[in-house]
Amino acid sequence: MTPRHGAPSTPPLAPTNPQSPIPNPVLPTGCLHVVATPIGHLDDLSPRALKTLAEADLICAEDTRHTQQLLAAKGLKRPLLALHEHNESAQVEAVLARLRAGEQIALVSDAGTPLISDPGFRLVCAARAAGLKVSPVPGPCAAIAALSVAGLPSDRFAFEGFLPAKSGARRERLQSLLGEPRTLVFYESSHRILECLDDAAAVFGEARRAVIARELTKLFETVLDGPLPQLVELLRADPNQQRGEFVLMIEGAPEDSDAALREGQRIFAVLREHLPASKAAKLAAELSGAPRKALYAVVSDG
Ligand code: SAM
User: Fold this and answer.
1) Is residue 238 part of a domain?
2) How far apart are CA 6 and CA 14, in angstroms?
3) Pocket mutation for ligand 1, best pick of 34, 37, 39, 162 (most atoms within 8 Å of C-beta)
4) CA-based nearest residue to 223, from 248, 250, 240, 202
5) Substitution site in 62, 221, 246, 249 for ligand 1 pocket (most atoms within 8 Å of beta carbon)
6) Same domain flag for 289 and 197
7) Are residues 193 and 243 in the same domain?
8) What whole-number distance in Å separates Cα of residue 53 and Cα of residue 65?
9) How far apart are the first and last CA of the chain?
10) Are residues 264 and 205 in the same domain?
11) Are residues 239 and 147 in the same domain?
12) Could you tell me if residue 7 is inside a domain?
């Protein structure tokens, strides 16, 4: 490789560790390793994730029985500590103490990347605030896996996690996303996929393309795409398509002005049922990006 002007002519000797370039003989070097685990296919546990788990003094796991099964499948036996949304705050101090004492501690969730709609946020925050080392062992994540096969724009996307459980709140959240130009990404379980799709179809209508990625990396992996009302019908007609775990992706709002106007009109029509015309036009303009005056004029002409 020809060195660029001013660049050193020899490559660096070894990767440097910015936090601790020279091993410190006094301070122990504990580390919290945030380890991604498979979302289905066990072969998706990376060699580095396997090594990190095998060498960990302790594995903090969302559900110890679940992680025990993964460890057993990989021929590992390590001490486990339950760390889930109900006890995370209570466990943080004990885990920090062990990190300060120099232990290598792995954090895993039941599937995929910890903290992505999974526990671990409080522990990671606290470890960082305490100046302790936190290092990722990246790997599977359902949202990223789904985007990689959806064929929807993925240069920018908005990860929304789980929608509210109740229909009213869910529709409200979806309404608030009507003008979002980035591809929308949601997690959903089998219990609510149909009602969630129903609400999405009511809010976004025919025009938006959507993709449902079901049971990725598993036996019944299915990726369906089409307009939302069509997907609702597909799932309604086939209960098997309602089973398993889902990532729902919805095309973002159109960015060109004609399309924004159409979108604005649609939103205006929905809001107009509940609000005075001027307020509805103002909100519809904000959500769609269409000019308020143009929107108002088109609607009052009609
Ligand atoms: N931390 C995980 C990750 O990195 O993707 C997500 C955990 S969240 C509690 C579980 C949700 O992720 C499921 O309800 C589903 O929406 C999605 N999910 C997990 N595994 C999946 C799979 N194999 N196929 C499709 N969606 C999946």
Assistant:
1) yes
2) 20
3) 39
4) 248
5) 246
6) no
7) yes
8) 15
9) 66
10) no
11) yes
12) no
Residue 148 in domain: yes
Average pLDDT of span 224-230: 96
Greatest alpha-carbon span in the chain: 78
Choice between 205 and 116, residue whose per-residue pLDDT is larger: 116
- pLDDT 10s digits, 244-273: 999 999 999 987 767 777 888 889 989 999
Q: How confident is the model at residue 1 (pLDDT cuts 50, 70, 90)?
A: very low
> Are the C-beta atoms of residues 52 and 106 closer than 8 Å to each other?
yes
The finding on whether 160 has its CB within 6 A of some atom of ligand 1 is no
188 Cα nearest atom in ligand 1? 16
Whether 113 is in the pocket of ligand 1, judged by its Cβ within 6 Å, is yes
Is the CB–ligand 1 distance for residue 149 below 6 Å?
A: no
Identify the pLDDT of residue 27: 56
Close Cβ partners of 228 (under 8 Å, ≥ 6 residues apart): 197, 200, 201, 204, 205, 206, 208, 210, 250
Domain of residue 269: give its range.
257-301
Query: Does residue 190 have a pLDDT over 80?
Result: yes
User: Do the Cβ atoms of 157 and 181 come closer than 8 Å?
Assistant: no
Whether 178 and 133 map to the same domain: the answer is no
123 & 40 share domain: yes
d(CA 134, CA 122): 13
d(CA 153, CA 150): 9
> Six-digit token pair at 166?
């109740």
Predicted local distance difference test score (pLDDT) of residue 6 = 34
pTM listed for this prediction: 0.81
What is the arithmetic mean of pLDDT over 272-280? Answer: 90
Same domain, 118 and 59: yes
Structure tokens at 199: 């609400």
Q: Is residue 209 part of a domain?
A: yes
